[in-house]
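Weekend entry, working from home. Most of the wet-lab plans are on hold until the incubator is repaired, so I used the time to fold the two sequences that have been sitting in the queue since the last round of cloning. Logging both here for the record. First:
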Amino acid sequence: MMAFGPGVDPCEECEKLLQPFLDRDLNEDERAEAQRHLDSCSYCAKRYRFEEELRRFVRQAAVEEMTPQLKEKLAELRTPLV
């Protein structure tokens, strides 16, 4: 379990837990500790909301079929690998 104690940057520790928190891979104590920090730190809460929204966007984009026009535009943007 990560400690949010004295001499520890709580935002740095929260950042380490952010992806496992979103993945629901934390034990109860770690999740509660991260949630307490997110509830009290607007910076980390904003990062959490961004990551959560990004994941939602990626899930949505993965199931939507691209239009031929979008595929063409993306193909035009490709740069050759050297």
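Second, folded right after the first finished:
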Amino acid sequence: MKTASLIFGIISLVLMLVGFLPCFGALNWINIPFAGIGLVISIVALVQNKEGDSNGKAIGGIVMCGFAMLFGLIRLIMGGGVV
């Protein structure tokens, strides 16, 4: 579960960066829900963590998915995608 959250975070960051290119801004309409799903998976992985296990992958997934959602939304607002 922790590895899945990290993979969701990495993919959502890559999609966010592609969405910042001109003519690819609409990709953020797909990326924001994708990052939201990754954020939920990351939070579940963090909550289900056993005592003594590492939290690094789950926290990394939370940070990357949150970052992708925030900047994807900013890009949509700047580009006129959200009215």
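Plan for Monday: verify the second prediction. Residues 6 and 61 are 4 Å apart (CA to CA).
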